[in-house]
Each structure stands twice: as structure tokens, then as C-alpha cells.
């Protein structure tokens, strides 16, 4: 089975911050791979816009170096790289001043999709949006892509949305969250809504609890000053994990349509109960294995910012009443792993005398490092000696099951940028969705700040603080092992 590649329309994509780290690591190599796959038409143009005094050739040299560093060897094709570099242009620009804007306007043309990627700090969004309009660069159908963070609380998120709304309609704004571009995340919707097998069981009557884990082995060194102003709650839970929670818990939309999907996600966020203090565990990693502690990496020896957080969350609606969702994310943990585990309830009655080997059915959706799904079911243990039960996984590793297509599957940024060009907002967050997420998050943060709570220290290379284990143990449940 070959992967189908459907070319997009001719486009002009302007990348503000075109020489920045995100552009170098993700955006530009990703665009090259879409060119290599035949998805980008020859008439397309990619325009870097940044403060540096480069010309077109200087920018092409910069992009060639990024391809060399961040693209796998077997995907480097000299002819394809040459053709891709010919699509590139550059404008030296001052996004808060007037330099370069007339040069950018001069590159405009009719008949091409206009897209503007704001790969810059959110504080600059307003200045760029205002100048795109005042210099009459962005047309009525232009699309803008904005990176997180979408504010750091409800007030700043509302202000940011209001700033963008002064110059662009909501249908033109693409708030990008790369987690939604992952193949497995989208497959979650397919598994739920394209198979009768799961959807009748997808409710509290049959599901005991859900665990969502995003674990990282890296610390915050190199970005400690930035991270110390956000923490795990703002950096991961409010956006990435919230999106995963919504896709697990949402009702079936009437159609796979951008606003229909986002309407259902918004309902989940608004149904989230306030989180009790005893259902929150925060941690900071300690020094160990030759590495510094969070306090050292953040440069703030009195920091109360968390590098780890675990939460027990409830959704007050008919589908999920009584089923807890356990969320956790952290730095310097045992392994790099992102997964969703749906644990089903026990059968109402066991017909087997020996119930000692019984374990719950669990559907595990792996987002990284190896994308795929497996369903753990009970079978008879092979051999003589009576009916002994054992648990085995029905495994579907995408790399194995779809071996002929997975190597051509675009990564999250590749997919999402192509969706921008197509004008498909399904995998992008809407403004009211972002604000609803902050409206739920803010009281949690304000609560621990008012109480003066300090994060609990935890050793690097573990599963996090001891109190996080108790969060599950007191309910008679256990976290799934990280990296196992």
C-alpha cells in the first residue's frame, strides 16, 4: 500500500523568524521533505523574513545547512535539494519598525495562496499583523500561523486573541500545536469513530480510568530562565495534554469538519471539574548522574516552578461521570515517552475458578517514540494444567503494520503546514478553545500560589515524585511504568 501524496495549490509562505531555531530545526527541513514527496508545486515560493542582513543566496545556504543537519541521510537528494532551494527568497525586515516591509510587499503576486508563519515571540504578533494590513501585504484570504504559547493566563490569551482579531478573521488564524499533527493522534479519531468495536464501550460504564503520560528525559538546561516563568502546567498540560484529553473524551462530531470537531473539544474543556488540591502533585528534579538540578538549571535557587505535574481530573457529563483521568508530565524522567492508556473495567462476573492471573483490558496508544497501538486482552495460558489466564497484547506498530507507507508519512509540522495551505483548520485550536483551557487552568495555578506550595524533589531517571504514586494508590490504581 503506497502513501498517497496530493499536491497543494501554488502558495507564497512567508516565515517571520525565518532564521530562528524552530525554522532551522522543523519548518524548513519539513518543507523540503514535502517538496521531495512531490506535494509542493514548482511555482510555490518560501520567503524567509528576519532581522539578519542576508540575501537570497545567503538564506539558501542557511537552509541547505539545516537540511544537512536535520534531514535523514536517505532523504537527501541533490537534485531535490537544488530544486527546493530555488523556491527560496529572503527579506531583511524589522517587524517592529518599517524596514523591509515595502520589499516584502514587492514580492507579492496574485493567484497564489498567501500564508504567514509567525515563528517569533508572541509579543511580536500584533506588530506583524498590523503591518501586514497597513502595508496591504496580506489579502482578504491570507492565513496566519501562530506558535504557542497562546498567552500565559486567561487575561493574556484574551488580549492576544483580541490583537489578532483586529486584523484577521478567526477563520484566517491557525494556532499550531504540533501534537495534533502526529499520526497516532489523528488515528485516535479514526479508531474511535470509524470502528463500531470501540465506540459503544467508550464511556464510564465500561472504562475504569484513563492515563495520559508525556515523559521527557531532558531537563530545562539552556532554556531555564524561560521555563521558570511557565512550568509544566503552562508548558504542557494547558495545551498538549489538554488536546489529547479532548480527543479521548469528546462526543462524536456530526462530521469531520473543522468547527464540528472543535465544538466537541470545547464542550469537554467546559465540562472539566475544578481540581482539588489533594489531586495535584508537583515536583522538581534534583541533581544526579552528573547533571544539575532544576534549581541550578533555572538559575533561581528559590524557584517554586514545577518540572513535573500529576493531576486527577474529572469530566462532569453523562459519558464520563465517575471515570477519572490521570494526567502527568515531567522532565528528567526514566524515558522519553508519550502515551494514552484506556483501562477498561472488570467483567461483571468471572466464570473461571482461578482469577489470580486476571488483569484489566487496556488500550494503549503510543505517540512517541514508536507510534502505534496495542490492546491488552486475556487469553488461556498455553499448555496443560487447566484454565490459567494470562494477558497478551494485540499489537499494531505502525512501523511494522504499514512498513511501506510509514517512511513517507510526514511529521507533525509537515502535515500541519500543508493543512494551512489547504485551508483546513481541523487540527488547529480555535480562540474560544484556548480561552476555555486557560479558564480551567488559571484557578489551579492561583490555588497553589496562594497556598505557597513548594514542588516535591524527585531523583532524575525515575517516574517522578513519590506523592504521584500515592495519587493513584489511594484509589486502588497504579501508574503504568515509564519506559517499560
Automatic annotation (TrEMBL):
Q: Where does substrate bind?
A: 178, 182, 216, 235, 331
Signal peptide start-end: none
The reaction(s) catalysed by this protein are: D-glucose 6-phosphate + NADP(+) = 6-phospho-D-glucono-1,5-lactone + NADPH + H(+)
Species this chain originates from: Pseudogemmobacter faecipullorum
Q: Which UniProt keywords apply?
A: Carbohydrate metabolism, Glucose metabolism, NADP, Oxidoreductase
Annotated catalytic residues: 240
- The protein's name is Glucose-6-phosphate 1-dehydrogenase
Every Glucose-6-phosphate dehydrogenase C-terminal domain range: 189-480
